[in-house]
Amino acid sequence: MYQGRRVLVTVAACCALAAGGGPALAAAGGGAGGASGGPTPDPAGSAGRVVDVGEGRGIRLECRGSGSPTVVLVSGTGGAADEWTTVADPARPTIAPKPGAGAVLPAVASFTRVCAYDRPGTTRFDGGPASSTPVAQPTTAAAGVRDLRAALAAGGERPPYVLVGASWGAMIAELFARTDFPRVAGLVTVDGASPYLRDTLTAAQWSDWMKKIAATDTGKGAEVPDYETSVAQIRRAPAPPRPLPAVVLTSDRPWDLGVGNSGSTWPAWLAAQDRLARELRARHVPETGSGHGIAVERPRLVVDAVREVVERARDGG
Q: Is the Cα torsion angle 150, 32, 49, 68 positive or negative in sign?
């Protein structure tokens, strides 16, 4: 599986950054700027635009296609919108993914409206900082929801929304669905993190993970999730009054958070995926032939899951 910058800069990224990650992490740790200052201009030829979300801040939003519901793609930790426009070459697994028509965003745009965005502190695959205005770190799921709502409103993107969350992005998507239920038509998680990790990891593993995150240098402006606070935010939020159309995609090629000396976190990750699928009453796809970066490794699986949820939403759930 692809083991480059973006796959590593997901749930496990906070740990790796704190430990001083190697070359694959260099782009993620640098160039994001400080916690203040204006947004970086979009790279030449980009289809995105920076929308004004207030308080002197801008968030880059990239939307394509037409139709309803609008699919909203929410990347993992450190992942800019290009997480959804690039594809890994299975024949060359060590080479960084490249833009392709088979990537998630352009493929979904063939059957409905779809948007992706750059959260503050994220990094593009080319190593450059995202165009969104940096903010102080760490961040929370609730802050992610506020920014996403503001970006969609500023961009004139209308509900209903189907939310697609990868890794850390799944926690933002879940909280959005819980707190804005009437405007959400469906949910897809792509090897998504969830509050259940708080229960399935051992106490030592969770503690080691939180210590790694706390030790991350937030002065560089790179995105750092506050999982402890975010778990509490999601658990306090009311569950949707009825189940949404949902699909849970789970990696089946083992990977690890790499925290402490208390054993592999892989079994806990799988157990949390099972519990998330049961909670959402989702169709669970545990055989994906992919590592953690399903969106770039197996984009067709993600597109098919999104299409399924979109069609169910169009049919009334």
A: negative
C-alpha distances (whole Å) from 202 to each of 173, 208, 211 are: 25, 10, 14
Give tens-digit pLDDT for 81-100: 999 999 998 878 788 888 99
> Rg of the chain over CA atoms, in angstroms?
18
Cα–Cα distance between 245 and 236 in angstroms, integer?
22
Task: Look at residues 146, 155, 152, 153 and name the one whose alpha carbon lies nearest to residue 179.
Answer: 146
pLDDT in tens, 187-234: 999 999 999 999 999 999 999 999 988 888 767 789 999 999 999 999
pTM for the full predicted model:
0.87
Alpha-carbon distance values, 317 to 69, 139, 241, 310, 312 (Å): 12, 33, 13, 9, 5
Single-letter residue type at 246: A
| Tally of CA atoms within 13 A in the half-sphere of 142 that contains its CB | 10
Half-sphere exposure (CA, 13 Å, Cβ side) for 88?
A: 25
Between helices 227-236 and 168-179, what is the axis angle to 10°?
30
